[in-house]
Amino acid sequence: MFIKVSKSIIENILSNCINFTEKKDNSQITSHIYIEATDKLILKATDKEFGIKFEDNTTEIITQGKATINGKKFYDIIKSLNDDFINIEVDENLATISQNHSIYKLPIFDANEYPEFPNIQNFQKIDIDYIEFIQSLKKVFPVIDSNNPKYELNGALLDINENNLNIVATDTKRLAVYNINQTSKKEFQIIIPRKAIAEIRKLFLDNFTIYIDEINLVIKTKNITFFTQLINGKFPDYKRIIPNEYKEIISISKNYLLKAIKRINIISEEIKFTINKNNILLESITGESLEAKTDFEINSNLDNFTFAVNSKFLLDFLNVVDEENINLCLNEENIPFTIKSNNFQTIIMPLSI
User: Are 182 and 126 in contact (CB under 8 A)?
Assistant: First the structure.
């Protein structure tokens, strides 16, 4: 194999591939990036749990072939070279990367041993607006647990019903639900791992198509193929947690609330809220002599309604919504409350005070 490729193209592809490689054991073929030259350039990376494939039609293919190259060394070499064309040549045992007076030689593995990517021939296609799908993942991502012994909580649920689609995440202290109105002939649920969602949010900005089977989710564009294994488990019955009605729904300025929380956070992340008819008071909760208070005007039917909350839970919500006003939905003081913005809501467990 012998190719001549633009540094900007190969560096951009490798920067996206590197997160998919095995980092701990360089003896594994999954620590390598697969490179193939046919009528186009193909690069793949996978740790077997998830993977990415890029295709490029601009690379000059001088002779065809395939190989695997250690991902970290490959990427570090490419980054170190000048912004010009780079030669990559592969013989039986070595890959040679060169540009002008710089030459690197790296060992290769047998490309035929590289793990196969899922074949989507028998997969089900999911019809979903790609912009709204990415928005939903962005909004629920902060609520996905990262190291829960209940493995199914370390991902987001994609719950497809006859009349709508919900994207759901929980860390057991809060529940985030993003609703998409669409119809489906088939009802099913899948759980997408957190680390896969982190990559999906970075990789896909344009139109794509989603395919699933019982084991994998695949996302395809013209030049990119992404796959992830799904989490095998049963997600909690989240619908039981969502209240059917509320005694009080208060419209609150997102910016006013953000500023108030940040003022109290200087002293404490745990905040006590007191809601009155004309204002909402925020106070720091500390076991020390430190104290912070601030308030702003609202309209409500409540008087001296109090609850406490970890401010991070509110900030995670406020930082991903775009609307000027959000709804604070309340029932009793010591039970979970809800914050809503259009089709996105988070149910939060209050702190004991």
Answer: no
Spatial contact of 182 and 164, defined as CB atoms under 8 Å apart: yes
217: left (phi over 0), alpha (psi -120 to 50) or beta: beta
Q: Are 82 and 226 in contact (CB under 8 A)?
A: no
- Tell me if the domain spanning 2-113 has CATH number 3.10.150.10: yes
Which contiguous run of DSSP H or E holds residue 259?
A: helix 254-265
Enumerate the domain spans of the chain: 2-113, 121-240, 248-348
**What CATH code is assigned to 121-240?**
3.10.150.10
Distance CA 347, CA 329 (A): 9
Phi and psi at 227, nearest 5°, equal: -140, 155
Separation between Cα atoms, residue 46 and residue 23, nearest integer Å: 11
Please tell me the CATH superfamily of domain 248-348, with its number. Answer: DNA Polymerase III, subunit A, domain 2 (3.10.150.10)
pLDDT tens-digit profile of 83-127? 999 999 999 889 999 999 999 999 999 999 999 999 999 999 988
Angle between helices 254-265 and 311-318 (to 10 degrees): 140
- Distance, in Å, from the CA atom of 320 to the CA atom of 164, rounded to the nearest integer, reads 22
Distance between CA atoms of 212 and 227, rounded to whole angstroms? Answer: 9
Q: Packing angle between helix 7-17 and helix 71-80, nearest 10 degrees?
A: 150
Who's near 91: CB < 8 A, 6+ residues apart? Answer: none
> pLDDT tens for residues 317-341?
999 999 999 999 999 998 999 999 9
